[in-house]
Design brief:
Elements (H helix, E strand, L loop, with lengths): L17 H8 L5 E7 L8 E7 L18 H14 L2 E7 L1 H7 L1 H14 L7 E5 L10 E4 L7 H24 L5 H4 L5 H10 L10 H8 L20 E5 L1
Parallel strand pairs: 1-4, 4-5
Antiparallel strand pairs: 1-2, 2-3, 3-6
Helix pairs in contact: 2-5, 3-4
């Protein structure tokens, strides 16, 4: 369902919660934010999270794009969100599903599944970057949504922390790649590891650099990119409130 025009214009001085407040005044409550982590990685899963926050004095302060926060601060906010949010969910999409179905399809499907996994249905959905088709409620895709809407920022943090923890665990299984440091993104260190060892089962073989490493016996292009995209339904649901 397409988004509807708001009767109330969000006030910039209302901070990160201004969109939720405007939607509540327009009769849409609760509002869910949805975002992902790992879209630009060439190894590991895609993680999609959905969060519905509480209003008033129960608001969580300090929410913003997870990439703008230190790891320690992300962990602190993750704890606050998962303990105090009205509802939250996380969906983990494994790398082989990304290879089989394509990144964008997995991303959209993951967003729908994360929203469906919430304990309560939202009245409106805010998403980061692009719309989520096939919803039974209206929604709005926002440019840099995780920097302007609190619920999207909260979803960004839940997705990022969930995925980072997974990548740290994968480092224990595949210590040659440094997953605990670069989290599967395309860095020079990751490129050198691919060149030396070739891809492991947690790499995305549909991605150009991974496929090149496989074909050329480990000769890969070294590109520095900590969170960019490398082009290249069956998702596993994570914890939820």
């Amino acid at each position: 369902m397409k988004g509807r025009p708001l009767r109330f214009t969000p006030r910039r001085d209302a901070g990160m919660h201004r969109y939720e407040r405007a939607l509540e005044h327009a009769g849409f409550s609760p509002v869910a934010g949805v975002d992902e982590a790992g879209r630009g990685a060439c190894a590991g899963p895609l993680v999609v999270a959905a969060v519905m926050l509480r209003g008033g004095r129960r608001r969580i302060e300090g929410l913003t794009d997870s990439k703008l926060l230190t790891p320690g601060r992300r962990e602190e906010l993750y704890t606050e969100i998962t303990e105090r949010a009205q509802a939250w969910s996380a969906v983990v999409v494994p790398c082989h599903d990304i290879d089989r179905l394509g990144l964008h399809r997995c991303n959209v499907t993951g967003m729908r599944r994360a929203l469906a996994a919430l304990d309560e249905q939202p009245a409106y959905v805010l998403s980061d970057g692009f719309p989520v088709p096939g919803l039974s409620v209206p929604g709005l895709a926002m440019v840099k949504g995780d920097q302007v809407a609190a619920c999207v920022a909260a979803a960004s943090i839940v997705a990022k922390v969930t995925r980072d923890r997974i990548m740290v665990d994968l480092h224990e299984r595949y210590p040659d790649y440094g997953f605990d440091l670069h989290k599967g993104y395309v860095t020079r260190a990751h490129g050198r590891a691919l060149a030396a060892h070739g891809p492991c089962p947690e790499h995305r073989f549909s991605y150009v650099n991974v496929g090149r490493a496989l074909r050329n016996n480990g000769e890969v292009e070294l590109v520095e990119d900590t969170d960019g995209e490398v082009p290249g339904e069956d998702c596993t649901e994570g914890a939820r409130a």
